[in-house]
Specification:
This protein has about 200 residues and is mainly alpha-helical. About 60% of the residues lie in helices and about 0% in strands.
Length: about 200
């Protein structure tokens, strides 16, 4: 999938939707793999205003400034991989049913098939992994994935809203997390904003 921030990928996209796409893309990238030194360096410059989202950006930037790639990788491994399994299981099926590869995954696959999103060859994670659903939302918001109006709301309402805030809250509160606790705060805050925005009439 193309980077939602690339000029080729984005046609005429509302500035708010482009900002949403970048937020989704950042969260997706950080959940899928730990940041390298270059990414941590970029994140260290994050600053925000006094809004909840702005404060979450500032906290993530400060955490990135005091974290090195090795520490971030260790956190990511402990939280999401582990010896056998990680501390957290960032899958819709697990959060909604207590099991992996459940009905939520099947439902999501059907929804993605309807809009022409196919599983990437070699992708080990099932589609209901938080990072993958967030990447899809980035593509929809940024115009990379062409879809009828309202599909982003449908994907969010049915495949993220029922569980993603709980996941980010668990990440935020994890005793194993420092840098990733701030990722949890950012995710929880942004998901709250999206939830409220999708309630507004369009």
């Amino acid at each position: 999938m193309q980077d939602p921030g690339s000029e080729e990928a984005v046609g005429v996209v509302d500035e708010v939707d482009l900002a949403r796409a970048q937020e989704y893309s950042l969260l997706s990238a950080l959940l899928l793999r730990s940041p390298d030194a270059q990414m941590l360096g970029r994140l260290a410059h994050l600053r925000g205003d006094g809004s909840p989202l702005g404060l979450a950006h500032t906290a993530l930037g400060e955490a990135a400034a005091r974290t090195d790639a090795k520490s971030a990788a260790r956190e990511h491994f402990t939280l999401f991989v582990g010896l056998g399994r990680g501390e957290l299981l960032p899958y819709a099926s697990f959060y909604l049913t207590g099991f992996l590869h459940g009905r939520p995954l099947a439902n999501l696959r059907q929804a993605l098939q309807r809009i022409g999103v196919e599983r990437v060859v070699g992708q080990a994670e099932p589609e209901d992994h938080a990072a993958i659903v967030l990447e899809v939302m980035a593509g929809l918001a940024g115009g990379v994935i062409p879809a009828p109006a309202g599909i982003d709301r449908e994907i969010f309402d049915h495949h993220l809203a029922p569980w993603i805030a709980r996941f980010f809250t668990d990440l935020e509160k994890s005793a194993s997390a420092d840098f990733y606790a701030r990722v949890g705060t950012l995710g929880r805050t942004f998901m709250g904003i999206e939830t409220q925005a999708f309630l507004l009439p369009r």
